[in-house]
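Friendly challenge for the regulars: who can give me the structure tokens for this chain first? No prize, just bragging rights.
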Amino acid sequence: MKKILLNLIIISCVISCAIVNPGEVGVKQQFGKLKGEIQNQGLVILNPLITELVKVPTRTVNKEVKLNLPSKEGLNVAAEISILYHVEENKVIDIINEVGISYERTLILSTFRSASADVCARFYAKDMHSGKRSEIESEIKNQMMSVLEGRGFVIESILLKSIKLPVGLYSAIEGKLKAEQQVQQMEFVLQRETKEAERKRVEAEGIRDAQNIIREGITKDNIEWRSLEVLRELSASPNAKIIITDGKTPVLINND
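First reply, four minutes later:
Bragging rights claimed.
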């Protein structure tokens, strides 16, 4: 008898306890009404016959959603998007009273679908697959935060994880990228040829300037002076030579 009584006591203690795990809070609900303060992580004592513990996660939640998004040109883009959000602890009781425990479906997802459709309709389909992806994510997040302001939810990030463009659009984008690459290549070749032409022009100008300098130095007086220098050097040479000159320009006749 004592053993049975002891077992009953143990069972009663066990079912009269609830545990709030890390990253969540609990609120006691008695006869359908919330009672008491928010319970943080740990052991919570309650009457299992009339009271239950409603637990709400306050850690970051990653909700993945698959949906078709409209684009500016009227196409449907299949997307897989992650919503990272968390609940503010001090707003848990208000959220349960005003929205209920299914707040994710009631508020988060419905707000997200509306905001994502509104934002993506202002962008072209190719923008969702390009560098404008972060801009789209930021605008969806800001629009959601505006709608949910003061409701106790914090939207941390919107992540466009997977984008599937309509059939044929990939080919069009690839064709455009290929054409852009060809234009860039042609511009590179043109720049290279232009620089080569500039190099040749500078080289020609240098040769021309050098020739002008030489031409300016070849005057009648210089020629006569150099001729006299040559004549003097020849006359000083020990070798026998025949020199015919008019006194200005010598002509050497080799004796051999």
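DSSP finds six helices and ten strands in the chain. The first strand starts at residue 17 and ends at 20. Your move, everyone else.
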